[in-house]
Amino acid sequence: MHESHLIEPIIRGISEHAQKEGAKTISKLRLKIGQFMGIQETSFRETFQVLAKGTLLEKTEVEIIFFPGSRIEVVSFDVD
């Protein structure tokens, strides 16, 4: 789960922002992930599910777009 250090700040940041807006859940999260980061999509998704348990993102559908780059971008997220 070497992706933990990348995923934890995403979950924390989105959760804090969504709670301020009164959201109860995050239904969808769209991310762009740089191909040069060496992240395996399956491993990223599994780690995300583990780390999101008990948060607003626990049942979030995660859409991932890979692009030539070396960063992760939160494109958008949908709140309920």
Describe the structure.
The chain is globular and about 35 Å long. The longest helix has 17 residues. Helix 1 crosses helix 2. It is 36% helix and 30% strand. It starts with a helix and ends with a strand. It has a single domain, classed as hypothetical protein PF0899 fold (2-Layer Sandwich). It has 2 helices and 3 strands. 16% of the residues are buried. The chain has 80 residues and is α+β, with helices and mostly antiparallel strands. Strands 2-1-3 form a 3-stranded mixed beta sheet, covered by helices on one side. Strand 1, helix 2 and strand 2 form a beta-alpha-beta unit.
Task: Break the fold down into its secondary structure elements and pairings.
Blueprint: H1 4-20, E1 26-34, H2 41-52, E2 61-67, E3 72-79
Parallel strand pairs: 1-2
Antiparallel strand pairs: 1-3
Helix pairs in contact: 1-2
Question: Quick summary of this structure?
Answer:
With 80 residues, the chain is of the alpha+beta class. It has two helices and three strands.
